[in-house]
């Protein structure tokens, strides 16, 4: 009897090759994909996704690419240890050109003409750079310049950079400040927690054809998370090895003994989550500051449903639970609108929603809100309050006392 037959699998559940069919949609992965999708909705879409080795970035990218429409032309660059000219050649090659023996100025002209041509044909052009942590500062500067190519109406190149945590550190360096200012959204894929790790394993077993529960014991799940830290690729490696150990002993259930045997075979130590490295990088909302400057009230028919406080940054509103503002309504799109908060106030932008965004009964695509403005999304209203304006309107304590005494 084979390994697959023994455990009632139709295919191997924990293989390491990326496969979108096996992708487990944790809240983090759903958010990262939503950010990727925003590059299609927004003409100046520029998104950075980082994650630990084995966190599922490549599988996530494949899932995203498999759902793109015919109106999107894309290039994926995975070999990133290139000079600026080599990088431009790689991009043009992906778009179907033979750009060799060309000077850099000719490469830029070819790419510029291609982008304008695609725009005139109502095509969206997307550049995805995987393993972007290996890009040199000069190539990152080249990407910044490419992100600025535009027609008289809008920018014509959408960009996704995906890479390991080193990319986050590189982008935070002072000499790349101009590039970071172009980035609309940044997100880091951290490890799965204990509950998500269990769900991840159950999901992969189900996709592989295992219908019966109870393949792993409770103690086995605890050991899996302890030794993998919730990193998907490590979970795959450990689970696969433990299954082989159980199979070798003709066991139908994987228990703690099998996990310990697998750990010993792999020569692993407990995963170092206690260093704080993962918690430090996991920022579900790409904010520059944690101090609250905005209050958003969600209302329906005049009734207050919820209240949210935000610092500077960007958040998404929609009916998908992974949004910062979750509105459960058939009139609200999955990712309906984006709110951007900064020192000067708040801007709302429609993310190609079905029912639109309305301010004062007028449908808007992008609108700069004023303190107290109400935005309609279907039967719900978002009321925007600038906390700094509210603070200004409050009298100083001394002033209030003197006026009372007068």
| Share in β-strands | 15-25%
Low-confidence stretches: 274-290, 400-406
Shape: globular
* Class by SSE composition: alpha/beta
- Mean of pLDDT: 86
Provide the spatial order of strands within the biggest beta sheet.
7-6-16-15-12-13
Number of strands: 16
Approximately how much helix is present in the residues?
Answer: 25-40%
**End-to-end distance, in Å?**
95 Å
* Spatial extent as radius of gyration: 25 Å
Give me the number of helical elements: 15
Largest sheet: 6 strands, antiparallel
Could you characterize the architecture of this molecule?
The chain is of the alpha/beta class and 406 residues long. The strands form three sheets. It has a six-stranded antiparallel beta sheet with strand order 7-6-16-15-12-13. The longest helix has 17 residues. The protein starts with a helix and ends with a helix. The C terminus is likely disordered.
Compile the SSE list and pairings:
Blueprint: H1 3-6, H2 27-41, E1 46-51, H3 57-66, E2 72-77, H4 84-94, H5 104-120, E3 124-129, H6 137-147, E4 157-163, H7 165-171, H8 177-182, E5 185-189, H9 194-207, H10 218-228, H11 232-248, H12 256-266, H13 277-281, E6 294-300, E7 303-310, E8 313-318, E9 325-326, E10 337-342, E11 345-350, E12 357-359, E13 362-364, E14 366-369, E15 374-377, E16 380-386, H14 387-393, H15 397-405
Parallel strand pairs: 1-4, 1-5, 2-3, 3-4, 8-9
Antiparallel strand pairs: 6-7, 6-16, 8-10, 10-11, 11-14, 12-13, 12-15, 15-16
Helix pairs in contact: 4-5, 10-11, 10-12, 11-12
